Amino acid sequence: MIVPDGRTCQSCKKKSALSALVVAASYKNDLVAQLVHYYKYRFVSDLHIDLGKIIISALQKTDLPLPDVVIPIPLHKRRLRWRGFNQSALLAKYVAQNLLPQNPIQCQEDILIRKKYTLPQMKIKNYQNRRENMQDAFLASNQQDISGKSVLLIDDIATTGSTIFECAKVLKKAGVKEIYAAVIARQEMKK
Q: Which domain holds residue 27?
């Protein structure tokens, strides 16, 4: 469970390496849903600026500390070839450069690697199957660059959080001190 300021509740912290998840907007907002759709599936990469501004605005309303490093959720090489860009990487770069414009934060795209090609999460309707789909999908490289640091993970949409939780688990094993995440919106699973 996420409390109002984005932090993970104490009982959930025992199950996840994630310290906070900031959800910038509601996916029920038609404009947000449409922007995300155009961004991801109509390949309008320039939307990362407007969507990045939404994430920054939400982060600025929290009391979370500034991260040492911003890391995007990686795409598998096959999906990257299909889309032509990593939507999370564009968002992460924008957030890193503009969260504190006078002092940009380092964005590192080479820390998390998606080593396993997985089904798109949106095609999986069951929570447990989503978790299994992401299990062992990522690995951390260049661990010396992140050991002991605080990290902000950036992704576009969270539904069950399986992708972010799996990435947080990998980063924690790599020695990251604190892990926060921010997404444009949280999409509710249809039953």
A: 10-186
